[in-house]
Amino acid sequence: MSLYDIPVTTGRGEETTLSEHQGKVMLIVNTASKCGFAPQFGGLQKLHEAYADQGLAVLGFPSNQFANQEPLEGEALAEHCQINHGVTFPLYAKIDVKGNGIHPLYRQLTKAAPGFLGFKNIKWNFTKFLVDRNGKVVKRFSPTVTPERIEAHIQKLL
Length: 158
Prior knowledge:
Layout: E1 8-9, E2 15-16, E3 25-31, H1 40-51, E4 56-62, H2 74-85, H3 104-112, E5 128-131, E6 137-141, H4 147-157
Parallel strand pairs: 3-4
Antiparallel strand pairs: 1-2, 3-5, 5-6
Helix pairs in contact: 1-4
């Protein structure tokens, strides 16, 4: 199954797929608004603003699996991220990014790009996956890698 065919839910609760992003470079990030890495929302927004017109889609998938750092949902989450971090890129509904209930999107992402020492599990919020225009997962970045450090990788794919 292609990444574009996997069902996802928007932050407004609408069922969709990532097919609207087909042909774009995607940066897929598991986010959490109360995480110590939450300032990365600003860097992700800058990437969105700088490269959306060239075909970059920054996509946030909130998860509450790490120390309950995402208590918000839906419109409240979108509003919080917009007010506090200026976020205008899409934030989808909360999902599980690890464990028995792992969302199919993250099952496929982690299989395609295992982390350090080949471990597939997501270790924390703000793990990032870079996907090329053909839907191939190109690279995985740890939470400590800031959006600014990913920019050159994005530029190569655009």
